[in-house]
Amino acid sequence: MNGLGQSIELDRPLVLATRNRGKIGEFTELFKGSGIEVRTLDDFGPIPQIAEDGETFEDNAVIKARFTARVLGLPALADDSGLTVKAIGGEPGIFSARYAGEGASDMENNLKLLEKMKGMEERSAAFICILAIAVPRGPALIYEGICEGVISTELMGSDGFGYDPLFYYPPLKKTFAQMSRAEKNQVSHRGKVMQELRGELDKVCIWLRQRLLEEPF
């Protein structure tokens, strides 16, 4: 049942186009009780590497969703998200996951950002999440979520992932890494975009059913 108390039916599972355990946990939690069967890339065999070569978060989200849908023959959901920091020209932006280099750990990325912002007073930042839902052919549905905060001068908290220990959210007086998952889902960029999506699940399912009928596979 969805939030409107109506049954949602989709004859195929929706694939989350990610292997990131943190993202999978958040998406799974937010889809709980929606009536949509959710799977992840871990439920399938090896698939080709996705080239995230877009110039914007939206480009990369659509690339990942469409590629996954085409390879697996199932509707797919992908997000591209990252941190933008005003004082350093919007960095790390689309390079958030590899800010300190290819294969960099979350800690390495965080430490690079701390070093880059050393001594800076202007520390406003925003997390941005673009979510795309696609079928093998045709257009994709796009959703956007933004959460504004500031970059802490030190790592705080042990939960979450990515830049969560540095992203301080003034209304709750905590970094994302100091929040419970429920708290974070209420205010985060990904939480906001998923809440918007959940409010339109009936429309999304109708759109998906129509697209799947038009594009049998």
Outline the low-pLDDT stretches: 1-7
Assigned CATH architecture? Alpha-Beta Complex
- How many helices in DSSP terms? 6
CATH domain class name: Alpha Beta
Strand order of the largest sheet: 2-1-3-4-5-6-7
The total of beta strands comes to 7
Give your account of this protein's structure.
The structure is a single chain. With 217 residues, the protein is an alpha/beta fold. The protein has a single domain (14-214), classed as Maf protein, CATH 3.90.950. Helices cover 32% and strands 20% of the residues. It is built from 6 helices and 7 strands. The chain has helices spanning 21-31, 57-72, 106-116, 181-187, 189-199, 201-214, and strands at 14-16, 38-40, 76-85, 124-134, 141-151, 167-169, 174-175. It has a 7-stranded mixed β-sheet. It starts with 13 loop residues before the first strand and ends with a helix. Mean pLDDT is 89; it is low at 1-7.
Record keyword descriptors for this entry.
217 residues, alpha/beta, Maf protein, seven-stranded mixed β-sheet, 6 helices, 7 strands, 32% helix, globular
Give a short synopsis of this structure.
With 217 residues, the protein is α/β, with parallel strands linked by helices. It contains six helices and seven strands.
Task: Give the SSE map.
Blueprint: E1 14-16, H1 21-31, E2 38-40, H2 57-72, E3 76-85, H3 106-116, E4 124-134, E5 141-151, E6 167-169, E7 174-175, H4 181-187, H5 189-199, H6 201-214
Parallel strand pairs: 1-2, 1-3
Antiparallel strand pairs: 3-4, 4-5, 5-6, 6-7
Helix pairs in contact: 1-5, 4-5
